[in-house]
Specification:
It is a single chain. The protein is an alpha/beta fold. It has two domains: 393 residues, TIM Barrel; 103 residues, Immunoglobulin-like. It is built from 13 helices and 20 strands. The strands form three sheets. Strands 1-2-3-12-15-18-17-20 form an eight-stranded antiparallel β-sheet, with no helix packed on it. An eight-stranded parallel barrel has the order 4-5-6-7-8-9-10-11. The protein has a four-stranded antiparallel β-sheet with strand order 13-14-19-16. Helix 7 packs across helix 9. The longest helix has 19 residues.
């Protein structure tokens, strides 16, 4: 009977059909970086690691509905409770310039309020959010999404999609100035990046032609004003997957590092400065050109000035292809970039979807997801997987996510393998310096293990928090032990308690523990389907 209950509990968790209302953990407050070590920390000084997902709605109205709940486009309370039950503590929330400023100079505050509602609702579940300016192929004018049509030079856009389809130019309708959906489907949306019109339009944005860059900076200033008081806001990601610029007239921009240095660095400084005019507290996250940074990005400095040195995060993506290195090798180079720039690293996209049979999409099978997560664990990197749901209308000129990449199958069921991979145990807040943080899942759940090692920092007053989903990874029962290695003669220097309701192991230190003492926390499967050992004192 006990085994049956465990199986039912596991199925409920995997399929998302039953949720407990998980208590929100106490917030660590604003998140900053420690530039010397390249890590994220909270106001208590604890090292923080974030696991989460993307919620990016492409196409009008550019924000997912919170009701009614479905498995394709909604993002409501049930979804938030579900991802919280998986241990996720961050969401990358897409911001569309086209949604925020559909007409030049007229901000859509109703749209911003809808995003703010999602941020606040996620916070009530103990989940941080960072807002990112999303674009794919820049704009719907180019069969993509992102910036509004009024921000595109009409004469420059007239050649689209040359030379992709030879001399062919897509006509636009008189109502909205956009090409037809049928024409847009004549090529893969990502191929439109290589057109002359898209490259030149990106260059206009970077060079602030006709003040279009200033308009975007003003948008970020207004967005930051709208979100700066959010308790559970991580920060702002300046732009998703920026293109190199006008590579047709300036071919050297395609060379690794050049566009980062010549185009993105000054562009990001303008945007970061606008945000800092109104919000000095939250993180600013910046991406390199996603496909040509290889061994080293071209940035020589981060976009924030010295006064905000501890508020910069180097964001990057990993997809195979275009990234042809193994996950661990690629992440090694990106974390070197982050440390060189005295920033924390954050993997803001990688594939966490069911194995879609689509040759146009990057690799996204279960083992690939596990490999990327293991690499992130090894380098102490936070991450947000792509993507929780499809999040776009079934029709439109916006990019259709390749193969409808989602954690949900087309029949509405969750991919239990992906759920298991993204919900593995991890240290989400550590009262010290992490040495290692590793989960090992053997062939049998009963032999799963997790080990966290860290050196104590006595400036931290809040406990270490480790997410542990007993039903998912330890259905036979969970044994938690903690040990301390230092020169002190005092006993009971650390205590580990597993809260099954919150799915959190809390490790607290006694006042007598030595600063820098080595703490080792182990979570192991019991060999029999029996009781749960919830605490061990050392």
């Amino acid at each position: 009977m006990l085994a049956f209950k465990v199986v039912v509990k596991l199925l409920c968790l995997c399929l998302g059909s039953c949720h407990r209302h998980l208590p929100a953990p106490p917030p660590g407050g604003l998140i900053s970086t420690e530039p010397e070590r390249g890590v994220l920390i909270d106001e208590d000084g604890r090292e923080r690691i974030f696991h989460g997902t993307n919620v990016v709605y492409k196409g009008h109205p550019y924000v997912p509905p919170m009701l009614p709940i479905d498995t394709m486009t909604s993002f409501g309370e049930e979804d938030m409770e579900r991802i919280a039950s998986w241990g996720m503590n961050n969401v990358r929330l897409g911001l569309s310039w086209a949604g925020a400023e559909p007409q030049k100079g007229e901000l859509n505050y109703t749209y911003l309020a809808s995003l703010r509602n999602i941020v606040d609702a996620l916070g009530s579940k103990g989940i941080y959010t960072y807002v990112e300016l999303h674009q794919d192929a820049l704009a719907e004018r180019f069969c993509g999404n992102g910036i509004p049509t009024w921000a595109i030079d009409t004469n420059m856009a007239a050649s689209f999609p040359q030379p992709l389809k030879g001399p062919v130019k897509y006509p636009v309708n008189e109502t909205d100035g956009l090409p037809s959906e049928a024409d847009c489907k004549r090529a893969l949306w990502a191929d439109y990046y290589g057109t002359k019109a898209v490259g030149a339009s990106f260059q206009n944005l970077y060079d602030n032609v006709d003040g279009v860059g200033d308009h975007l900076a003003n948008l970020w200033r207004e967005v930051a004003s709208f979100f700066k008081n959010c308790t559970w806001l991580l920060g702002y990601e300046l732009m998703n997957e920026p293109w190199a610029g006008d590579i047709w007239n300036k071919p050297m921009l395609a060379y690794p590092g050049v566009a980062d240095r010549e185009n993105l660095a000054p562009f990001y400084k303008r945007l970061a400065g606008a945000i800092r005019d109104v919000d000095s507290n939250h993180l600013i996250m910046f991406e390199p050109i996603p496909w040509n940074n290889w061994f080293k990005s071209g940035f020589d400095e981060k976009p924030c000035d010295a006064a905000f040195e501890n508020k910069s995060v180097y964001a990057y993506h990993y997809y195979h292809p275009p990234d042809l290195m193994a996950p661990s090798e690629y992440m090694g180079y990106r974390t070197q970039d982050a440390k060189r720039l005295r920033s924390a690293g954050f993997l803001t996209e990688f594939s966490t979807s069911w194995n879609v049979p689509d040759d146009t999409a990057p690799q996204h099978d279960l083992q690939h997801a596990k490999d990327v997560i293991a690499a992130a664990e090894s380098f102490k990197q936070s991450w947000s997987g792509w993507e929780y749901k499809v999040f776009h209308p079934s029709a439109g000129r916006h990019p259709m996510t390749p193969g409808d990449m989602s954690m949900f199958h087309p029949n509405g069921t969750l991919d239990s393998g992906i759920v298991s991979a993204v919900s593995q145990p991890y240290a989400r807040a550590v009262a010290g310096i992490i040495i290692s943080n590793k989960f090992t899942e053997a062939k049998s759940y009963r032999r799963s293990s997790y080990v966290l090692e860290y050196n104590v920092s006595k400036r931290c007053k809040l406990p270490t928090e480790v997410y542990a989903n007993e039903a998912m990874h330890y259905p036979g029962g969970l044994t938690v032990t903690v040990s301390v290695q230092d020169e002190s003669r005092f006993l009971h220097r650390a205590k580990a308690v597993y809260n099954a309701t919150a799915r959190i192991v809390l490790v607290t230190h006694s006042p007598y523990i030595a600063d820098g003492a080595r703490v080792t926390l182990k979570m192991e499967s019991k060999q029999m389907l029996a009781g749960l050992v919830i605490e061990t004192l050392v």
